[in-house]
Design goal:
Shape of chain B: globular
Shape of chain A: globular
Number of strands of chain B: 6
Distance between the termini of chain B: 43 Å
Order of helices and strands of chain A: EHEEEEEHHEEEHEHHHEEHHH
Strand order of the largest sheet of chain B: 1-6-5-4-2-3
Number of domains of chain A: 1
Structural class of chain B: alpha/beta
Helix content of chain A: 25-40%
Radius of gyration of chain B: 20 Å
Order of helices and strands of chain B: EHHEEHEHEEHHHHHHH
Number of helices of chain B: 11
Strand content of chain B: 5-15%
Strand order of the largest sheet of chain A: 3-2-6-7-8-9-1-10
Number of helices of chain A: 10
Largest sheet of chain B: 6 strands, mixed
Oligomer: heterodimer
Helix content of chain B: 25-40%
Number of strands of chain A: 12
Number of domains of chain B: 2
Radius of gyration of chain A: 21 Å
Largest interface: A-B, 42 and 33 residues
């Protein structure tokens, strides 16, 4: 890992240069009261002073809807066209917080569980992650309780930390180094800033080990019914989550041609596990809520050695009925 | 309409509760009049729904102008309610929704204890649907200033500008269906968007499919919507989808002379035929 310093004006210049070289630049953009990731054409559009974007950055690797392949039937023949990796843009995601960068690890673990997911891999290969340390948490944040932190480097290619007059730059991967080299003159030697002095302070909200131990025997607990009563069964929590990876396969068919699509789905929906027979193994919301928490905090750590939660707090912010996840985890 | 008497509460429970509402609900639970109460409790940022089945928990109940989520949405959920008689603390708009659910035969008044607290802090327990209707008509509609500003902006737009505005907003929708989930009138066990034989609406997120979904929802709300705004408040992306049905409430009022308070008329604008309808195509 190498360290550098970059001033605010040089940072903007560097980002504009990456953009002008044809890379797609995704960054937080403020529109009205909302801040969300969007493709920007100039670094001046980027928001730096928000706590959290509404959505995570996961859609760069796992878009809400994507074409897996398209087909056309013609005179008894079927022409198949696979997704085209070479048409995928080289992308830089800028300004995501460490909780979002860390989310790409569980996503990758899911998409390479028993076989590699080619389309996910292709997008990840073309994506470089330049994150920004967190200096201001809100009441929904709990990254420190899930082994993350406001300056955590997991998942980032470059991590910037706002320091006096600019940013401390931690170059963490080869991909990150390649981006720096694109405009090496913008970067100065490390000024010896102590990163921790500039980071948000976020006290623990729960003891992760204790929560995980309690979850091991909680499958039949009445707590799920109690906690899930107010849950409306929408997919807001799953769709804003940086690690939720459930998807549906749909067919956009028009006569003799069509496309096979992959789109976001949620285990909170009643329809998610409904069988063709009419049987639904997760018949009630309590079972679906249990699945959500156990999947993230029990099944994923057991099977994939990674948790399905980075403590970004988005699900709690997005929930129409305040299903506050850290509060629920603490009360199990 | 029966105002709750202080004497009644004193006999209902020996514990002293922090509010008249909590005392009332505790009394209802203790006497076995209801098995469950649905109300609001303190939440992370604003009040949130809570479910109370133990007398002591009634102390958590709060009710003020910040309690805006429409609790009527829970009244049609069989898995929560079963065969219980339920007390519900209803906001102004939830009262409208309850009336509509009554006319659509989705709830039974004998299985409900409908409570509200007026802006002056007076607890009211409604006895009949007519009482609820009278209360709604005599109470000013809670104002939503943000909506007013945006509606004026939309009304001032040309058709093309409005189309551009909605195309842009709805293109962002990722189909989490929080709007549907928060709506008391979306009680269908199978939604039109889930029909796949044939598939009426593209279920994946895309600008076209999103517009199809929201227009469909708005049409299904026509003459039924209580104008509570829960769909818009529930949207994690803050899309103002509630304005679609709000505009339709206005249109229905202009075209059919029915407003959102006429919930006891039965039927709704798009599925009710009356000989005096001004349209001639059916005659």
């Amino acid at each position: 890992m190498e360290k550098r310093f970059i001033s605010q004006p040089s940072l903007m210049q560097w980002l504009d240069k990456l953009n002008s070289e044809g890379k797609h630049l995704y960054a937080p953009v403020k529109k009205g009261a909302r801040v969300d990731f969007a493709r920007v054409s100039s670094a001046a559009e980027i928001s730096f002073d928000h706590v959290q974007t509404t959505q995570s950055a996961k859609s760069v690797a796992f878009p809400r809807t994507e074409v897996l392949f398209s087909y056309e039937k013609e005179k008894g023949k079927v022409n198949l066209e696979n997704f085209q990796a070479e048409k995928m843009p080289s992308t830089v995601v800028f300004g995501l917080h460490p909780c979002d960068a860390a989310g790409f690890n569980p996503l990758t673990a899911i998409f390479s569980w028993d076989s590699r997911d080619e389309i996910f891999d292709a997008r990840m290969e073309r994506t470089t992650i330049v994150s920004l340390s967190c200096t201001r948490p809100d009441e929904s944040c709990f990254c420190t309780s899930v082994n993350g932190g406001p300056g955590n480097t997991t998942g980032s290619d470059i991590l910037l930390t706002p320091v006096k007059e600019g940013f401390l730059v931690e170059i963490l991967t080869e991909k990150g180094m390649a981006l720096v080299k694109a405009d090496a003159a913008s970067f100065e030697a490390d000024r010896g800033d102590v990163k921790e002095d500039f980071l948000a302070k976020l006290p623990l909200k729960f003891d992760l080990k204790a929560v995980q131990e309690r979850l091991t025997n909680a499958f039949e607990s009445p707590i799920w019914k109690k906690q899930s009563q107010r849950c409306l069964g929408c997919g807001a929590c799953a769709f804003v989550c940086p690690t939720c990876a459930c998807f549906d396969i749909q067919e956009d068919a028009h006569g003799s041609k069509g496309k096979r699509l992959r789109c976001w789905d949620s285990c909170g929906f009643a329809l998610f596990t409904l069988h063709t027979s009419g049987h639904n193994p997760r018949e009630v919301q309590a079972q679906r809520w249990r699945q959500r928490l156990l999947h993230k905090f029990s099944y994923m750590p057991e099977r994939l050695s990674v948790r399905g939660c980075t403590g970004c707090g988005r699900c709690s912010r997005a929930c129409p009925v305040d299903m506050n996840i850290s509060e629920h985890l603490s009360s199990i | 309409m029966v105002d709750t008497m202080m004497e009644e509460k004193a006999t209902a429970s020996t514990k002293v509760f922090s509010s008249e509402l909590s005392q009332k609900v505790a009394g209802l639970l203790q006497s076995g009049d209801v098995q469950l109460a649905i109300g609001y409790e303190k939440g992370t940022k604003r009040p949130r729904p809570c479910f109370i089945s133990e007398t002591d928990d009634a102390d958590k109940l709060i009710f003020d102008e910040h309690c805006t989520g429409n609790l009527a949405v829970y009244l049609t959920k069989k898995e929560l309610i079963g065969d219980s008689k339920v007390a519900v603390t209803a906001s102004y708009f939830a009262l409208r929704s309850i009336l509509r659910l009554l006319t659509e035969n989705q709830v039974k008044l004998e299985k409900l204890v409908v409570l509200t607290v007026t802006s002056e802090g007076k607890l009211i327990q409604f006895e009949t649907a007519e009482d609820i209707a009278a209360y709604i008509k005599s109470t000013p509609v809670p104002a939503r200033e943000d909506d007013k500003v945006l509606l004026e902006k939309l009304n001032a737009m040309t058709r093309e500008e409005r189309w551009a505005f909605w195309s842009d907003e709805l293109s962002k929708c990722f189909k989490c269906y929080a709007c549907r989930a928060a709506c008391p009138m979306c009680y269908c066990t199978k939604c039109i968007v889930e029909e796949n034989r044939p598939q009426w609406i593209q279920p994946w997120a895309s600008t076209l499919g999103n517009i199809e979904w929201h227009i469909n929802r708005a049409m299904h709300m026509t003459g039924r919507c209580s104008d509570c705004g829960a769909c818009g408040s529930a949207c994690p992306l803050d899309l103002p989808v509630h304005l679609l049905s709000k505009k339709i409430v206005e249109e229905v009022s202009e075209s059919f002379g029915m407003d959102a308070n006429d919930t006891l008329q039965g039927g709704n604008a798009l599925s009710t035929y009356k000989p005096e309808d001004k349209e001639t195509f059916i005659k």
